[in-house]
Write a sequence for this structure.
């Protein structure tokens, strides 16, 4: 009897243990499924959603079983500061385009606790893909806040797959930079970032569709053939977002994967750090294009061949073309008579022919500009010689530099008319430059205030300052004839009446209370400055500049230490403002005497 009782208890224990084990395994499986569905930053792997190697496929089964699936996202790039949205590249999973509202909708589970998108050191948690009048990523290399993009978060269930179409293949959003046609900007700044974005996020799909977010160039536009020559090398097709969405009758169209962002101005030195490390990606992009056009990349040239590029079509051909082309051709022929030399006008060749000609070249001599950006398509081990922008005397003239600035303003005005991109007239560029020189604002701050890209600000500031230096300084600054003689000691020129005043150069707040007190100056916008004293004559020419002093130093102290007062009795008369009252030989306004009752 005792033995039977023991067996009964043993059986119950084994039954209970087995039941608990089965339940544990069942709930573990449910947890794994839930994790894959609800992961906040999950990235769908290729084995979860196999990419079908056919035309665009619509999946109608994956979401039909569950209606509580939400959108997810993952990014690479700067995720610490909302202001660095231009360097960000993102993939969004299960988001939908609302054709009526014309927005991409990011679905978040209704009633769920809001999860922050970013944590900003200054702003704290950020819960939206739009902040401070800009989106989450840039859709092209030279984007302003108006050309940024981010989905709109909606507190709704993701639509069922049996109600709306779900597009299976990867779709890449990008925008075309509407600048004067330049193959370099099209290849390496418009198109290349779309390929790089897919690779960097592990989302590459040979059947990907590239969607131009604003408006695709028309077929008669020179940009369109370049798109047609490049994009099919790594993606299935390209289209405008508006035209592509019209292929579907549903007012909501959902995407398994949308990739966006990553456009960088590759020709700007400011963004060079973002290009470093991507050499292999750019090489693969270039190789895919060569292979698409039938070039055998493993077949390298066996004999030397020199190509001399004759640039004939350019708005700035006189500045960028090789002016003495015939002389260069004769020199190469006479120096290397046994080496094949071809003078080529590229616009007479199709793009496919250009690729084949380049791959039979060992030395390329080309002008700079967009035409030189074909260099990466040369075979390995070859050499390229690129001439500089200014190759003739006329290019160095003041008129040429000013004309270049006027051309820049004209182009910006045309872009403003067609795309809404802001522009400044030459006189406004001068005003901004003087503002920059006076207030010591950073280029990033000016770019933000004017809604420009930082490279744009960097460009026009350098050009305007160059014009000021070459055209205005000779008229305002008087230099002795023997200025280059280092042995000559220069003092004030004789028989001059001088006007003296100090100016402030704003600086950022120094560290430490003692330093702050030393450089404090209440009249400055930043409250901390260097002070410099300048003396000019009645011909508006600068004849003396003092060394820099901390902002707290009084103007009259700077004058006394400058050495100018040593000459006042002899041949120099100084006129100054009320800050210099107290010196016998300095002419200043009379002091106002206030009568107190």
């Amino acid at each position: 009897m005792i033995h039977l009782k023991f067996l009964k208890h043993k059986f119950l224990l084994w039954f209970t243990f087995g039941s608990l084990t089965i339940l544990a395994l069942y709930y573990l499986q449910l947890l794994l499924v839930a994790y894959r569905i609800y992961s906040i930053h999950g990235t769908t792997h290729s084995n979860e959603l196999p990419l079908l190697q056919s035309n665009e496929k619509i999946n109608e089964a994956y979401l039909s079983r569950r209606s509580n699936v939400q959108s997810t996202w993952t990014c690479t790039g700067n995720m610490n500061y909302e202001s660095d949205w231009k360097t960000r590249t993102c993939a969004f999973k299960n988001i939908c385009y609302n054709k009526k509202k014309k927005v991409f909708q990011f679905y978040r589970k209704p009633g769920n606790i809001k999860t922050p998108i970013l944590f900003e050191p200054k702003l704290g948690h950020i819960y939206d893909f739009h902040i401070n009048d800009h989106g989450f990523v840039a859709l092209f290399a030279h984007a302003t806040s108006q050309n940024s993009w981010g989905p709109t978060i909606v507190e709704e269930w993701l639509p069922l797959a049996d109600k709306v179409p779900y597009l299976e293949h990867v779709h890449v959003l990008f925008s075309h930079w509407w600048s004067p046609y330049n193959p370099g900007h099209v290849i390496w700044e418009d198109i290349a970032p779309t390929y790089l974005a897919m690779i960097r996020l592990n989302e590459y799909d040979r059947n990907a569709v590239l969607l131009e977010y604003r408006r695709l160039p028309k077929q008669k536009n020179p940009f369109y053939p370049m798109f047609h020559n490049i994009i099919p090398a790594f993606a299935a097709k390209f289209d405008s977002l508006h035209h592509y969405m019209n292929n579907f009758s549903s007012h909501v169209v959902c995407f398994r994967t949308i990739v966006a962002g990553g456009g960088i101005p590759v020709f700007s030195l400011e963004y060079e750090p973002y290009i470093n490390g991507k050499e292999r990606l750019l090489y693969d992009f270039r190789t895919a294009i060569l292979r698409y056009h039938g070039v055998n990349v493993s077949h390298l040239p066996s004999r030397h061949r020199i190509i001399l590029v004759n640039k004939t079509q350019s708005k700035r051909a006189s500045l960028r073309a090789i002016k003495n082309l015939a002389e260069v051709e004769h020199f190469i022929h006479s120096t290397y008579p046994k080496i094949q030399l071809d003078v080529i006008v590229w616009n007479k060749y199709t793009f496919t022919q250009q690729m084949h000609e380049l791959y039979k070249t060992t030395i390329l001599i080309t002008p700079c500009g967009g035409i030189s950006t074909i260099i990466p398509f040369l075979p390995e081990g070859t050499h390229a010689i690129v001439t500089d922008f200014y190759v003739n005397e006329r290019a160095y003239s003041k008129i040429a530099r000013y004309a270049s600035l006027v051309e820049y303003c004209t182009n910006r005005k045309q872009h403003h008319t067609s795309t809404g991109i802001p522009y400044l007239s030459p006189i406004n560029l001068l005003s901004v430059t003087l503002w920059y020189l006076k207030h010591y604002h950073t280029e990033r701050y000016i770019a933000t205030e004017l809604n420009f890209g930082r490279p744009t600000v960097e460009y026009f500031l350098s050009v305007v300052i160059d014009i000021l230096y070459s055209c205005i300084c000779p008229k305002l600054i008087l230099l002795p004839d023997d200025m280059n003689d280092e042995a000559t000691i220069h003092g004030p020129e004789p028989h001059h009446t001088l006007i003296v005043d100090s100016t402030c150069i704003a600086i950022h707040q120094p560290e430490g209370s003692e330093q702050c007190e030393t450089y404090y100056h209440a009249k400055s916008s930043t409250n901390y400055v260097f002070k410099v004293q300048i003396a000019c004559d009645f011909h508006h020419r600068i004849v003396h500049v003092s060394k820099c002093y901390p902002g707290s130093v009084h103007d009259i102290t700077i004058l006394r230490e400058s050495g100018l007062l040593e000459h006042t009795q002899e041949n120099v008369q100084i006129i100054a403002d009320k800050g210099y009252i107290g010196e016998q030989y300095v002419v200043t306004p009379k002091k106002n005497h206030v009568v107190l009752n």
